[in-house]
Write a structure and sequence with these properties.
The protein is an alpha/beta fold and 225 residues long. Helix content is 50%, strand content 19%. Helix 9 links the parallel strand 7 and strand 8. The longest helix has 18 residues. The protein is globular, with a radius of gyration of 19 Å.
Length: 225
């Protein structure tokens, strides 16, 4: 390959790396891994202004990591493909293994939630099949509607204390949210245990469950694999 063509290729690859070089953009990609969102919804989820969110999305769009579609007066964004989620998961894995500070923070986070007794994918899938567990999705309702673990019950975290009666007392509850570092599930387990319920959290989140090819559902389409 001529040097000029190789340089052009590397420039394009660097564009992807540059797009990932922002904590805010990584968080936006994490939210989009749950499903499509408007700019306004993304801004709310990431704690950013709409203007700042739009600028970050433009960078991600120029790198072909996200796509957009006009819907009335709104613009809805989505990941450009499942490989984008896999890219962000690979970045996370490399950082955990190779960057000492990331490894230290991740270890401290895991140690801080040891009492929550996380449940892995294989264990959760087996217990779901056996009907011995209630799976609780504590993400915002829009994310649940976009896709969720098959059979999960949706109670957004802010409503959990008021809607505990929806969860049978005779089964253990396993809570999950956006991913392995999402704190919504941790907080849900704390609330449930404070009310005398048996509760644990899923080690990962919905995107990891879906990427593993385990059963999922959407509000409109029903079961899928």
């Amino acid at each position: 390959m001529p040097r000029t063509l190789k340089s052009q290729l590397l420039d394009e690859l660097a564009r992807v790396g540059k797009a990932l070089g922002s904590a805010s953009r990584l968080e936006l990609l994490e939210v989009l891994a749950q499903g499509e969102r408007t700019v306004e919804a993304l801004a709310h989820a990431a704690g950013l202004s709409v203007a700042n969110t739009s600028r970050h999305l433009q960078v991600l769009r120029e790198a072909r990591l996200v796509e957009a579609e006009k819907e009335g007066v709104y613009v809805r964004y989505r990941l450009a493909g499942p490989e984008v989620y896999e890219l962000t998961r690979s970045v996370r894995g490399v950082a955990e293994r190779r960057i000492a500070e990331v490894e230290r923070i991740a270890r401290a986070y895991r140690e801080g939630r040891e009492g929550l007794e996380p449940v892995g994918s294989a264990d959760l899938a087996a217990r779901l099949h056996a009907g011995t567990v209630i799976v609780l999705d504590v993400r915002p309702e829009e994310e649940f509607q976009s896709g969720h673990i098959a059979g999960a019950v949706s109670i957004p975290l802010e409503r959990l204390a008021r809607e505990l009666r929806r969860l049978p007392r005779n089964k253990e509850v396993v809570a999950y949210c956006r991913g392995p570092y999402c704190v919504l599930a941790d907080r849900a387990v704390e609330i449930l245990r404070a009310k005398g319920r048996r509760a644990r959290r899923f080690t990962d989140g919905f995107p990891e469950w879906r990427a593993a090819g385990l059963p999922i559902e959407t509000a409109n389409l029903g079961p899928s694999r």
